[in-house]
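re: ur question from yesterday

yeah so i grabbed the chain u mentioned. its 348 aa long if i counted rite. heres the sequnce exactly as i have it in my notes:
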Amino acid sequence: MGLFSRFDPVGRDLKAAERLEKNGKSREAIELLTRANKKERSSRVEERLVVLRHEAFFQESFTQGFGEWPPPVGHRFADHDGIPEIDRAQMSADVVRDGVFNRGSIIVRGLLPGDDVRILREGIEKAYEHHDMAMTGASSAETTPWFVPFQPTPRDGDQELNRNWYREGGAELAADSPRGLFNLIDALERNSLVDLISEYLGERPGLSVRKTSLRRIPCDLNSEHGWHQDGAFLGEGIRTVNLWIALSDCGVDAPSMDMVPRRLEYIVPTGTEGAVFDWSVSSKAITAACDGGEPTHLHFKAGDAIFFDEMNLHRTSTLPGMTKPRFAIEAWFFAPSCYPLDQLPLLV
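ran it thru and got these structure tokens back, copy pasting raw so excuse formatting
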């Protein structure tokens, strides 16, 4: 064993991953660095993995797993009143698809175990803390591995990431936190969620830099006018699913979400009379979308989750008397064969 390998095993792993990448084996490079980082955490490896996951996306060839979208969907929730709920043991790609395409969303109780909830929540606190340090002048050497801003490449074109806007809404980009992103993908893989989403989409998915976030919503956030469908921003021809995971109890003392409890097959017009923002949906349009019903105010325990897609109409929900922040993960997955590249892909 050479001196380099003996005294710098991290450097050895990074060099080995670089060779794999140059030989067109980016997935193998990601797997090598992931294994190494599980054995011994390294900020150098975690930072490289963020960049590698983005670069590797453009080295892959993708084929659509389903000839049509949505694929054939069952009707187990077609007559269900409201948003269906299952527990983790009942979860499968078919069941999740049935919930999303019949009722607009599906709640999974107890999706993540307590240890994963704790690790991810602590990671959110660290990401916010180290981002705050950066804003007061700390160097990247001081904020790594919890906050290292993701840098789009020339290939991505003129992409701007308005981090102030994210923070005002209670979010940190997961890709800005190399260790936070590593912990998130690790938890998703260990709990078979990447496999489930791969089956749901028919392809092993890519994560969105822009829409995958570590969320800490303050109890006094003004969310009154935040009704929206993500499909209004994402464009047509996509295949996507959002996995939203509660990392704290929410809905009573802490903010949650309000949601239209039905499947919509159209994009509700934004910026109409009564809407405060050009991207938001007015209260009058919400009433029409509910088709005689009412929006549902969601309640979650830490570890619960909800799946929905770009057609879902929802908002963050804060109520008078709430006293605690809400911690959550929002992870948007896209089928790589029809990925909207302005969302900045990460290979998983």
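noticed a couple things. The mean pLDDT is 94. also Residues 114-135 form the longest helix (22 residues).
anyway ttyl
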